[in-house]
Fold this protein.
Amino acid sequence: MMTRSRRRLLVFLLTLALAGPASAVVLEGTGIATIRGGDLDAAREEARKAALRDVALQYDARIRSEDTLEDGRITDSRLTVASSARARNVRITDERQLGNALRITLKADVSEDAGNCHVGDAANLKKRVAVTGFTVQRPQQVRHGRLDDAGEVLPQMIQAGLQQRGNLQVLKAATTQLHPDVVNAPTQRQFDNRLTNVTQIARELGAQFVVAGVIRDIGVEDPSAWGTSVLSKLSRGFGASNRNRRFVADLMIFDGFSGSPVYQKRFQTQGDWNAGMGESEGFGSAGFLDTSFGQEVAGVIDQMHNDIQHALSCQPFMTRITRVEGTTVTLESGATSGLRPGDSLKLYRSATHFDSLGATPELKDADIEVTLDSVFPEYANGLIPQYGALENIQRGDIAIIW
């Protein structure tokens, strides 16, 4: 009989509808667009896109959670939010003009996109990601090897790796801790956005996503292996001492506009901590990376880079509106994010109700697009068809490219 049993539980929580099967299903969607300046063709195309988004959400909006259990204990946990529907054989079944609005109803054969994620224009833009400091759950463990800077250096190494890859706009916030209270920090699939200040940090930094984490374990298995006695020195000399060191860290990604979790995973490894006295000068130092343990941790950090990029690759590009003057709208993202003159972004109103001020802000489609006419490194200006006051577009609302 095996002493260690390993099994995986796959749990699918459907947020809007049951996930579709591998084969195509026929779904019906409805989209509405405003007819501006008598341009019926433009309104028809906008309504068609809205109807296709409605179909995609019906088919494939879901949350997937995967846990790994060993001897009844959760040793690995991953949570992702994903959508990957593909529509074919699209046909319009009804088109009606209601005043200055055009409503289109269509049917489409919808199936799972078996290939890589395709987000359209958003794939060419750099989303802003703030990487915050990691909290060390057991501070006494970092004293061995002088790794007391692990909570700041680990996110700095993540930042450097993401910047080197170049497809995200990385904001440095390693000295800011999202979860100073480790007891209330998210673990496994337990999330409570009211215990975090994600949205505040994201707003201050202008970030679309916030990366945070907790170093759960960085301890050595046998502290006596580094003793100063003759016996300890002999044991180390003959390789008889246990110099193994553990590394366990939770990585979390949050949506900066709502505070909702986008991704979570527990990373863990171990290796021989074979650094001599005074050879390690901190987490990530040359002496640290020369150890077998340091090399294992470096591999884990590289995996973190891959997972962050993969988790965000299918997300739309979102940015805040900072100013509205007449028909001119200013966005807080610009050329450094990949925006160019002529780009069009859908506008969404952000609303918080007085009876639930701590809840996630609601986004409502404003049924209007802003077209950029001047783009600067850190901000961009664009035009909307009518005065912002008439459309109720204001500072704090959201612009999105899918």
Remarks:
- The longest helix spans residues 292-313.
- Residues 1-22, 61-65, 77-83, 187-195 have pLDDT under 50 and may be disordered.
- The first strand starts at residue 6 and ends at 14.
- The radius of gyration is 25 Å.
